[in-house]
Amino acid sequence: MGAEAGELPRIDFSGVDASVPGTGRWDATRAQVMDALATFGCFDAHYPALAPAQRAALFHGAVRPLFALPVDAKRRNHYGPGKPFHGYLGGLPGLHAYESLAIVDGPELGDVQAFADLLFPAADNAAFCETVHGAAARMAELEGAVRRMVMEALGVAVDEAQTQSAPFWHLFRMSEYGAPTADEKAREVRYGSHQDTNSLSVVCQHEVDGLEMQARDGRWILVRPSSPASLVVMAGNALRAWSNDRVHAPFHRISVGGDATRYSAILFSVPGEPTIRVRDELVDEAGGHPRRFRDYDYDEFVRFCVSEEGARHDDKLKAYCGL
């Protein structure tokens, strides 16, 4: 089934200072964020803090050169056999013309430097590191602000919301999706329908659209950024479980069309604590919010999602730990 062009709920963050919660347009923006994540599970964030020039530098000066490297060099982006999805992905069954590289703790300059030294061992990579770190840090600021807004909107105490920032880490993933060949359809799905396993994802598309979101009525919407400063923020299953299903985790996929290669950068926030638990104060039997999920181990759930058993279920979280 094809996708129709459309726009997500649009939220303007230009009046929000992520470093000073509660000031400016914080409260009004928080209400919009909670409404969008509860209803759609995602939204288009107008976020001038990641300027169009900085975005262009990321893709033209850093991302494209990465994927021009030989495959053997890209395979050095590896975090060990116990973390197969943390680094380089390429040549995977069912993922035609797709490659991806990732940096654990991408918003940290030292981790970006270690990544660059691994992939460009004989090069002066200072400009690369500054560009990637700067973009990842700006995206992490937005993710942190949205996460805090959700906690506040759901009634988590402010001091507890502050302490919740520590047990999260970020994976910064850069991806390339090859354009269709002449004998392929006008538009081809490159990465199939799925929900993210993590808490929040911040997606930066560059020049070539391809992110498709599934609305609750089943329609697929091809996301058209509303401005040159647009980022897509979407919820994953960890936040869905934590919020006792008050936040929606949308299905989404990636398609390509035309003759241009698509590039994207995504910042994933991942719980640092191994066990994902429903918040007790978000369980309300009398109010129509009974407990929806059992506590679960995050890494075990990720392994379930890529197992043969997990592949048999569309809603993997419900299948794994739903009540």
Automatic annotation (TrEMBL):
Belongs to the iron/ascorbate-dependent oxidoreductase family. PROSITE patterns: FE2OG_OXY. One of its GO terms (molecular function) is metal ion binding. Keywords: Dioxygenase, Iron, Metal-binding, Oxidoreductase. It comes from the Eukaryota. The gene is LOC123182172. PANTHER family: 2-OXOGLUTARATE (2OG) AND FE(II)-DEPENDENT OXYGENASE SUPERFAMILY PROTEIN-RELATED. The keyword Oxidoreductase applies. 2-oxoglutarate-dependent dioxygenase essential for auxin catabolism and maintenance of auxin homeostasis in reproductive organs. Catalyzes the irreversible oxidation of indole-3-acetic acid (IAA) to the biologically inactive 2-oxoindole-3-acetic acid (OxIAA). InterPro entries: IPNS-like_FE2OG_OXY, IPNS-like_sf, Iron_ascorbate_oxido_reductase, Oxoglu/Fe-dep_dioxygenase_dom. This is 2-oxoglutarate-dependent dioxygenase DAO. Residues 167-271 form the Fe2OG dioxygenase domain. Pfam families: 2OG-FeII_Oxy.
